[in-house]
């Protein structure tokens, strides 16, 4: 089956996660993604995380560089720059996440790239974006979580702010926004022939996901603080320990949901308007409501609590470990865990493709490539270099 992005060629010259993740998403849906790496060792992301016996490549690399072809090229050398511009002329998208000004320093900024390919889409992801007083500052996901306002909210009330789940969350969020930007720009290019720059800051992706904190501060001067496992907007709405030391999430965001929970607890009278049936009453009695629910869950195993919640249609879910996830039939039914065969390592399990398309689904055909596995095909077949020319460039350290 032909995938929807078949025929789109992406040059991924970025490192680590953010822009490469955007390129990987495009690759899952048919785009040809050529990963451009330094000849000496390649992308440092190859060696980040759990190292495998496949030439020292990490599981992070195998998973996140999926479906890509690797070529080696030193963009800082004149011959490398010239060769890259030839690749740009044959591409639709370039994805990069260097510090702003780096490509310009190499003579490979937007002016030079668009001159050889006016229809090119250049995706640029950096810590603070291409403009503004902080544009030259280095940025990583943890820095974006802090600057974008997310880390301030993560943790227990009055406690130390903590990492919000994954230290790489901002990278993945920015990769998603980057892929959206590229698709929108491609749509415009198809209509007008014009390429453009997609400029994205890591912190912007984080800030965009913080629901009402901006309008609430602007309108009421309200500054949200750390709320722990709960939320100031609903009750009960948090994480509760069960008798077997497992945890469950319960989210009663409406009065009707709370009434159903009261039925599950065997205390339907608590849903009366004069009791805790109204949200404002529950918020005023938050500690008492949470204590009641905690006493109920702590007297039962997680499976028992889940059974009752499902029976009475109370929104609930277990706090899954990765071991729980591997055993859960929902993850299996949705192909959220894909087993991909690697010639050297055998079966490797990686996260599945998101989202699911009914007619043109994405896929993972192969894991992250070996360094330079596409040199002969890309430079020979695509650009027409002879074996002798390629050997000479290799001898100079250009490829």
UniProtKB/TrEMBL annotation:
Instruction: Cite the GO molecular-function annotations of the record.
Output: transferase activity
User: Where is coiled-coil annotated?
Assistant: none
Q: Which InterPro entries match?
A: CoA-transferase_III, CoA-Trfase_fam_III, CoA-Trfase_III_dom3_sf, CoA-Trfase_III_dom_1_sf
- Tell me which UniProt keywords the record has, alphabetically: Transferase
Has keyword Protein transport?
A: no
Name of the protein this chain belongs to: Carnitine dehydratase
Q: What organism, scientifically named, is this protein from?
A: Paramagnetospirillum kuznetsovii
